[in-house]
Write a structure and sequence with these properties.
Layout: H1 3-29, H2 32-54, H3 56-59, H4 62-67, H5 71-94, H6 98-117, H7 124-143, H8 151-178, H9 180-195, H10 202-208, H11 212-234, H12 238-246, H13 248-260, H14 265-284
Helix pairs in contact: 1-5, 1-11, 1-12, 1-13, 2-5, 2-9, 2-11, 5-8, 5-9, 6-7, 6-8, 6-12, 6-13, 7-14, 8-9, 13-14
Length: about 280
């Protein structure tokens, strides 16, 4: 990997470290449904702000994109993302580390799928490390902090794994056919429309643009999402982007053990360090 690829990857990791802690502040004071709403709204704000520069990526091919059957995948992602963020926030309120560590299982499933069926062409060494991370994620469910989640949250944990692994495939298929900007635009619109069913009050909508935690969370999410999708197209393979996304998990686990007393720092550090060791060959080889 080049220095530019590693730098972009580490920026993605940094954004993913910030996300769960900013979102945890939001869910402490507001319902989990609001997180999906402010996420979609801030994404739409970012898309509106960048439209003069990036909008042509949709408008130059608007008819072809709008009529493309692949656009249904973008809409599906928005619907699933709305549900996923709500479930993730419920888990985040109970265990921050559990709200991020599911990603290792999801990236293993997603990477295996696109390498087997879509021939992404990752080296065998990298695939083995990715699968080992998935196994580590399963162990975290069995003996880590996720074991202490309530039964309903464990169901959410499994559903999130399936949803996030599907995102790897959806992005891999949809983006080359509709473009990353259109993919982000229509998934954000779908997510926002889904939020109307959530029963968000007028005061909640006002808080989206008044509360400092929600504003920070929305800006960080939007900026990192732009970077993630752009990097997936122009800089890094989708599976490697996924690895940089999940590289944040060891850091979040250790910080959450220190800040929120989730398990012990030693317990979280063991999972975190093993995950880091398995991740480094993927990035450096």
């Amino acid at each position: 990997m080049t220095m530019l690829q590693i730098f972009i990857g580490l920026l993605i990791t940094f954004g993913m470290v910030l996300r769960p802690f900013l979102y945890k502040k939001c869910v402490e004071f507001y319902p989990a449904d609001l997180s999906s709403t402010f996420t979609s709204l801030w994404l739409l704000v970012a898309l509106f702000i960048t439209a003069p520069v990036l909008g042509h990526l949709y408008w130059d091919y608007a008819w072809e994109i709008t009529c493309s059957p692949y656009l249904a995948l973008s809409i599906l992602k928005g619907i699933l993302l709305c549900k996923m963020i709500k479930m993730q926030q419920i888990i985040n309120k109970q265990s921050t580390s559990s709200s991020v560590f599911f990603g290792f299982i999801a990236i293993a499933l997603g990477s295996l799928t696109i390498n087997i069926f879509f021939n992404e062409g990752l080296a065998l060494t990298k695939l083995i490390c990715i699968c080992a991370l998935g196994i580590l994620g399963i162990l975290f469910v069995l003996i880590g902090d996720a074991r202490n989640l309530p039964y309903k949250s464990k169901i959410y944990f499994i559903l999130i794994i399936l949803i996030v692994s599907s995102f790897t495939v959806i992005d891999h298929v949809a983006i080359p056919n509709v473009g990353w900007y259109s993919h982000l635009l229509f998934s954000s619109l779908a997510m926002f429309l889904m939020c109307f069913k959530a029963g968000i009050t007028k005061q909640d909508y006002l808080n989206i643009f008044r509360n400092k935690y929600i504003i920070c969370a929305g800006i960080v999410y939007s900026a990192s999402e732009f970077l993630i999708i752009y990097a997936s197209i122009n800089i890094l393979p989708v599976s490697i982007v996924g690895i940089f996304l999940r590289l944040s998990a060891p850091i979040v686990m250790i910080l959450s053990a220190y800040k929120y007393h989730e398990k012990s720092i030693k317990n979280q550090a063991i999972f975190g360090i093993i995950a880091l060791v398995l991740t480094l060959p993927i990035i450096l080889l």
